């Protein structure tokens, strides 16, 4: 059984803080505590993607965290990634599992509880729940609001991560709605200090988990 034990999920995106490189921002993010990393670069061509994937594979190995590739099971294989993340439009979940094998991590984006339950049935290892807030990183996709986060916290049994417009300024609301894992792109890679942004989010996740365990403990007495 795969153990997916992450709190903070960082996706590369394409818009780093001015003057910064992918390697710099992701090294900082890892240094600041990113627990899992995904390469998502919608405009890069195949060789450029492979080069970025190899760089991230090297960095994530150095820090001992899983590395996921967006959309492309073949690229995941070629770059020796730990898995692939697929959107609703990408479909091909079963094909990805067949291609990558039982040990690969397969994540699926979901935008409703119905999609979440279908992804669970399809054998996803984790799902994304979002976009919680409107975000320019995924334009045109309406926000699912905190309501879907609340539903996920009640009904989803596999690991799920809240995503979309989340940063240190609003993470508390998302954690308050029941999330225990957060994913961010712009709040981290667009920050002047990705390491600091990660540390802040990790501290908030840890505090929320602590409160929850405390409550469960008290409720159980
Ligand atoms: N997927 P930011 S929202 C890549 O809801 C992505 O499935 C989403 O970027 C989903 O942290 C999103 O900059 C963008 O808002 C997240």
UniProtKB/TrEMBL annotation:
The keyword Magnesium applies. Its cofactor is Mg(2+). Pathway: Cofactor biosynthesis; thiamine diphosphate biosynthesis; thiamine phosphate from 4-amino-2-methyl-5-diphosphomethylpyrimidine and 4-methyl-5-(2-phosphoethyl)-thiazole: step 1/1. 4-amino-2-methyl-5-(diphosphooxymethyl)pyrimidine binds at residues 38-42, 70, 109, 138. Binds 1 Mg(2+) ion per subunit. One of its GO terms (molecular function) is thiamine-phosphate diphosphorylase activity. GO terms for cellular component: cytoplasm. It is an enzyme of class 2 (transferase). It comes from the Bacteria. 2-[(2R,5Z)-2-carboxy-4-methylthiazol-5(2H)-ylidene]ethyl phosphate binds at residues 135-137, 165, 185-186. It catalyses: 2-(2-carboxy-4-methylthiazol-5-yl)ethyl phosphate + 4-amino-2-methyl-5-(diphosphooxymethyl)pyrimidine + 2 H(+) = thiamine phosphate + CO2 + diphosphate; 4-methyl-5-(2-phosphooxyethyl)-thiazole + 4-amino-2-methyl-5-(diphosphooxymethyl)pyrimidine + H(+) = thiamine phosphate + diphosphate; 2-[(2R,5Z)-2-carboxy-4-methylthiazol-5(2H)-ylidene]ethyl phosphate + 4-amino-2-methyl-5-(diphosphooxymethyl)pyrimidine + 2 H(+) = thiamine phosphate + CO2 + diphosphate. Keywords: Magnesium, Metal-binding, Thiamine biosynthesis, Transferase. GO terms for biological process: thiamine biosynthetic process; thiamine diphosphate biosynthetic process. Residues 8-188 form the Thiamine phosphate synthase/TenI domain. The keyword GTP-binding does not apply. Mg(2+) binds at residues 71, 90. Belongs to the thiamine-phosphate synthase family. Condenses 4-methyl-5-(beta-hydroxyethyl)thiazole monophosphate (THZ-P) and 2-methyl-4-amino-5-hydroxymethyl pyrimidine pyrophosphate (HMP-PP) to form thiamine monophosphate (TMP). This is Thiamine-phosphate synthase. It comes from Paenibacillus pasadenensis.
